[in-house]
Amino acid sequence: MHTISFVSASGGAGKTLFSILTAGALAIRGKKVLLIDMDPSASATLYLLDKYVEDCNLQTLLKNLVDYKLGRAARRADVNDCLARHRVAGAEASSFDLLPGGNLSDIQSEVFQVSGWNRLMADLVAPIESGYDYVIVDSPNWLFPLFPMTVSLSSLYVVMTRPGKSEIEKTKVFLQRVFAIMDRQFGIAQPQIYALVVLNQIRQNAQPDEVEREGKAAYDGLSREFPGIKFAYSDKKAKYYGEKKESAFWGFKYYEDLRLDSYKQNGHVLASSKVREEKPKLQFRAYLELFTKFVEETAVYERLVE
Ligand SMILES: Nc1ncnc2c1ncn2[C@@H]1O[C@H](COP(=O)(O)OP(=O)(O)O)[C@@H](O)[C@H]1O
Ligand SMILES: [Mg+2]
Fold first, then answer.
1. Which alpha helices (DSSP H) does the chain contain, by range?
2. From 5, 15, 16, 17, mutation site for ligand 1 pocket: most ligand atoms within 8 A of C-beta
3. CATH level 3 topology of 2-299
4. What is the pLDDT of residues 46-76, one digit of tens each?
5. What is the residue extent of each domain of the chain?
6. PANTHER family of this UniProt entry (predicted)?
7. Which of 43, 61, 193, 217 is the S-S candidate for 228 at Cβ 3.0 to 4.6 Å?
């Protein structure tokens, strides 16, 4: 079992989109997948189920766990009771489980009453995680005070970032903060090696040469600061960005076919015949290969938090 959190320095970078598409792609490949919606705005849940699940979600489960730890509840709730099943759009024979999100902000002050609160998410998921090959976490904003709970839960991070100097600077500050939490709160040595950076939302009209420049700039900026991180880059050439020119894979452009709305209407980019354009498919396949390699190579270091 591998737990992978999708994180980013800014909102709108693609955490929710790529949590859902990655969970779907792994399910299509026959993997058992759980998607945990940790975002207090529960956007993955809203996309996948079209509604909030009021009575049974991450908020109610965490509230129960806090009450149990503080001696206010007699028994621990069963996480299985709250799981929803999502059939992958366009590949309905494949499915993954969703742990619906809830407004964790509402129970923040109660969570802080538990000593070792930053390990509560790991504790919550422990009874069910061994049933899965992959646990994918759509993380909350990193400025959210409960964010450190994500760190005890995940072993690996996919860091979504947009190109451009200011976005890369933001990502640096963000990574410094995450690595500091991993190191200081959880005693994780070499936290950098657990991160895969994915460049997303490269300008639609960028030519392959420009994509390469943007990609290199992001790569250089981040790998200079964090020599241990991995970058979703592949030098296997294909027509990723242009009609004619073959180039290396540097990340994702913004495509209508990748949008969450398109996922629902037209199906998963890998599964759907309605997605006619080859480029988003090529980019997603390259990403998935790099993602899988990252997980396999990094898993040997796993078992971060005891
Ligand atoms: N490469 C992309 N191509 C097309 N749409 C994208 C891409 N990346 C993100 N989006 C869209 O941008 C919006 C923000 O992405 P989202 O995953 O919600 O970000 P986050 O969860 O990090 O806030 C969503 O509507 C999503 O579908
Ligand atoms: Mg989101």
1. 15-28, 43-49, 58-69, 108-111, 120-129, 148-153, 165-186, 208-225, 260-266, 278-299
2. 17
3. Rossmann fold (3.40.50)
4. 999 999 999 999 999 999 999 999 999 999 9
5. 2-299
6. ATPASE INVOLVED IN CHROMOSOME PARTITIONING, PARA_MIND FAMILY (PTHR43384:SF10), SEPTUM SITE-DETERMINING PROTEIN MIND HOMOLOG, CHLOROPLASTIC-RELATED (PTHR43384)
7. 193
| pLDDT < 70: residue spans in the chain | 275, 300-306
Closest CA to 142 of 4, 298, 260, 5: 5
Q: Would the CB of 47 count as within 6 Å of ligand 1?
A: no
pLDDT computed for residue 155 by the predictor: 78
> At which residue do the structure tokens 């073959």 appear?
246
What atom in ligand 1 is closest to the CA of residue 202? Answer: 1
DSSP 53-110: -SSSSHHHHHHHHHHHHTTS-SSPPPGGGG-EEEEETTEEEEEEEEE----GGGGHHH
Ligand 1 pocket, 258 CB below 6 A? Answer: yes
> Is the separation of the CB atoms in 216 and 208 below 8 Å?
no
According to DSSP, residue 202 is labeled B
302 close to 155: Cβ distance less than 8 angstroms: yes
Q: Which pair of structure tokens corresponds to residue 220?
A: 């250089």
